[in-house]
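To illustrate this point, what follows is a protein record of this kind.

___
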Amino acid sequence: MKSAPDWFMYFIWFWTVVLILFMSVGGFFMFRKFLKVLPQRDGKSKLDWQNYWVERSRELWTEESKEMLHKLVSPVPGPFRDIASHSIAAKIGQLAVESGASEVTSAHCIEGYIRATPARDHRSLKDFLEKNQIDYSAYNHLFR
């Protein structure tokens, strides 16, 4: 019986590498999600806290602030937009509640958006804010 041709063996090795790569990338993102649901020292997970701040600030949101949030999360790719919107809304809600505001303002939205965005994305965040002519000069100290 003859052995498999060389091109077939290369074909098998190529797909083996591709599958291992895809499983590694998927596993990485699943692990990150798993870390978010682990309880912290206070007994609540990061997702629990996000849900808490969104619910606590729900009545403070106006149509204008919802529009601002929608505008701010527009550069996020579609499949991730809902998750990003929820985590950013939680940070904005936390800022509004802790400051004792009667409603969420655009200042809360900008500051919460900057605080909720990872430091690695701050450069593109600045570009987005400048492109949309949103004044963020009061929050320059939050950028790294």
In short: The chain has six helices and no strands. The helical segments are 6-37, 46-56, 63-72, 78-99, 106-116, 122-131. The first helix runs from residue 6 to 37. Residues 1 and 37 are 54 Å apart (CA to CA).
